[in-house]
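During the second year of the project, the team shifted from modelling isolated chains to modelling whole assemblies. The rationale, set out in the original proposal, was that interfaces cannot be judged from single-chain predictions alone. As a representative example for this report, we include one of the complexes processed in the last quarter. Its constituent sequences, exactly as entered into the pipeline, are reproduced here:
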Amino acid sequence: MSSRDMVILSYRVNPEDFAKAGDASSNTKKVLKKLGIPSDITRRVAIVTYEAEINITIHSNGGEIIVSIDKAKIEIIARDYGPGIPDIDRAMEKGYSTASDHVREMGFGAGMGLPNMKRCSDEFQIESQKGKGTTVTSTIYIHD
Amino acid sequence: MYLYEIRDILDAEVIAGMSRMDREVDFAFGADLMSDVLAFVNERTVLLTGLTNPQVIRTAEMMDIAAIIYVRGKRPDTASLELAEENGMTIMCTPYTLYTTSGILYNAGLKGIDELGVVT
Ligand SMILES: Nc1ncnc2c1ncn2[C@@H]1O[C@H](COP(=O)(O)OP(=O)(O)OP(=O)(O)O)[C@@H](O)[C@H]1O
Ligand SMILES: [Mg+2]
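Output from the structure prediction step:
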């Protein structure tokens, strides 16, 4: 990548579409590999996008994931159209989950998704408005 | 430990990635919740699970996990198998339960992730 180049990937994520959940993250990972991003960075981005994709699929009315890659950093924005997170501090606690039994049977609901995303990010932010939606922003810096 | 050694001690059937049994792993991790996998494993880990849907393969793909072992006679669904082939993963099925499978592998020298000090 030359210093001025920027790659932007954008994916729509549908609610409860478990057949497609993971496609956005899988594609993002392949693109990062092709761009020659270091594998530890690629894995951190993969974890953040995958957890975000699953959260939008499970917990929201649908949304989108936008991944922007430039020379210095990768920014992941996961945005959905509601219902919002009533208590963000609570949601960030390890082990806290409102996932239904049905979702747990599919392998989700450990309450580790948001903590995982934070751990893998250099900068991490959640904004949420009841009824309107949630936006999670993660920034990961690329080292040489 | 090599994947072919794991196959032998677990009496496992290999249903994907048979040509790549000469890969080596150092750790094993058993889980039916995917975020636990995303929290703890590295690419030198073999995943033990009883969960048969494609999200298991997606999770393994994110973590560069080379091999998945389905326990207590479970088999992944067709969509999972296709995804596994696409990603060059090895898939094995063992008749043993998760506990027994873990015990056999641990006895044979495969370590738990705890020994990396990542589990908090
Ligand atoms: N996009 C979202 N919209 C609404 N609620 C959300 C959203 N993301 C997370 N939450 C809430 O925050 C809780 C914690 O999320 P987190 O990702 O940490 O765990 P989980 O999704 O329940 O389980 P896991 O990620 O381990 O499979 C969720 O159970 C849910 O109540
Ligand atoms: Mg989650």
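The first helix of chain B runs from residue 3 to 9. The radius of gyration of chain B is 13 Å.
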